[in-house]
Amino acid sequence: MTLILSNDDVDSVLRMDRCIDALEESYREIAAGRAVTRQRSDSLVGAGDGAVYGFKTMDGVIPSQGYAAVRLNSDIIRWPTVAGTQRRVKQPLAPGGRYTGLVLLFSTKTGEPLAIMPDGVMQRMRVGATNGLGVKYMAREDARSVAILGSGWQAGSQLMAVCAVRRIREIRCYSPNPDNRERFAAEMSDFLGVAILPQDSAEVAIAGSDIVLCSSNSIEPIFFRDDMSPGMHVSSIKMPEIDHEALRRADRVGLHMGHQTPITVMAADLEVPDHAKGRGWGARHGYDFDSCPKLPDMVSGAVRGRERADEITCFINDLGLGLQFAVIGGIAYEAAVEKGLGHELPTDWFTEDVHP
Amino acid sequence: MTLILSNDDVDSVLRMDRCIDALEESYREIAAGRAVTRQRSDSLVGAGDGAVYGFKTMDGVIPSQGYAAVRLNSDIIRWPTVAGTQRRVKQPLAPGGRYTGLVLLFSTKTGEPLAIMPDGVMQRMRVGATNGLGVKYMAREDARSVAILGSGWQAGSQLMAVCAVRRIREIRCYSPNPDNRERFAAEMSDFLGVAILPQDSAEVAIAGSDIVLCSSNSIEPIFFRDDMSPGMHVSSIKMPEIDHEALRRADRVGLHMGHQTPITVMAADLEVPDHAKGRGWGARHGYDFDSCPKLPDMVSGAVRGRERADEITCFINDLGLGLQFAVIGGIAYEAAVEKGLGHELPTDWFTEDVHP
What we know:
Number of strands of chain A: 18
Distance between the termini of chain A: 22 Å
CATH class of the largest domain in chain A: Alpha Beta
Strand content of chain A: 25-35%
Radius of gyration of chain A: 20 Å
Structural class of chain A: alpha/beta
Number of domains of chain A: 2
Helix content of chain A: 25-40%
Low-confidence stretches of chain A: none
Oligomer: homodimer
Number of helices of chain A: 10
Shape of chain A: globular
């Protein structure tokens, strides 16, 4: 049977510590050349009225776990300016006002499709776990205080992850909308059992923090050079969040896999922000990202993420990997089978008797 | 609702002439920069005992039709030598002895998943239609006789396509196994209403033919320089079939899209044939494929496929395109909806209410 799982199913079985451990192991497999992951690609065409239709895919295979996966998104995208910064916002135009993002999981032993799941919860957990590994390998061991910039869906899993890898005692939160940051602080305080203090400026939230987590949907910088202090670790969930002058001040900048930008194919004359064209951030920032250590290098021990307590380190979760969806999709699938979750469909519906 | 279609459903609604027309239009859209297609990628890892697990994807978007698609294959692959030539053979290891190849079709208007279908019948029709367009734009208008090398699943659609674009009066068929070529000749004669004569050598089948269709699963050459005669069009469904000395003798060699080889990511130390590593055929053959006209150039009128009656032309269907599956998948989907075919599942199962 092939399992159809919902975000609720996936959410009920995924734990952050397990996701972090499994991804850590998968980076060792990547570093050893046994696992593979194909850089994300974006296919972009005009969707009328300034919107863009984007079809995004990424693939990965983790033979030690026996899984392959493709993660795909079929999105109508706009880039509005909110509170002074430009954001990338998907339009929920599928029936019922919904988004379309899927993970298909396959067996590397038989080739068969094992499960089809929405990508949302997995995306949240894999982004959190990745930045959590950035903290584990780059932040000070004795880091206790965290500032988080952002109060959305991703910000929650960033906090889950940092609390899984360091003994965090205090969290301060800033996001432009006071209602959002107060709701977020209350909800996540309950969830994590750690006090979260909403702040009315980024500067106040950041000052004195050991770790700063950027977790916005901004496509412009939200963390700057003057926000830095010795010993700090600054973590970002996308390339633009940390200003390039801040990167230059850092002693070490780590990247996730170093893909930086997707393989991009786009219609002629399409008008989209530079980053959506797959143009290198390095070229734009005048920063040499190619020389940065990558997470698999740090996890495998080839490179040290931090040498001294007073170093300033940054970690940028530059692009997601299909591999992460194979790994975390595999965890969700196995737990869902054990618990009897999801809709079972005949695997014959998704296989064929002709040699294609 | 999201439709789950079978190969039988797809087969019952796809007609070769319609596929050829729709692909022809999509190449005009590609040439005009309005449609996009992301080069196929292969992610390869070891599967034990000399086998390889391959996860293959390709994406395409045709906004004029309102469709995007990903085509994916999850294969366990071997490369045995049969009748003296090396072949690429997928192992049907999914439950029931089946293969795993899927096309997922999406709306560019809403993002929603419209249909999930096996890729087999579409693959057969899109390969046939592509080489049919090669014949349309490169073979002599008065071509009447065809030789086909191969008697498998793809050979049938090659004949359907050549008969759709030229008034074919005689077909000769060669493949190494006499039973296969006799069965194939009888079946396709009935289907096409054209006499097909099985032959006991490739040379006899080819001699005097206006068009030669290579349609094998060989990854070594099966058509050679001395097989050529003035005015002939030679068509191939994969890069290796036409020997490089024959390509050098040709007056013009057309490619499909010119991708030649997939984007390949593979485990370290994996042992696979050169072509599976994504290494360029041009480098291996010492042939400048980059300068060859591509099918969109010929369809849009930017380049002429044939200048004179006595020219020798070749067309190589170098790599499939995600775009083709968006186009042909769209045709199958619309016809299936009209006829009430397939299993309907709630689209909510494949969408989500979180911004992923």
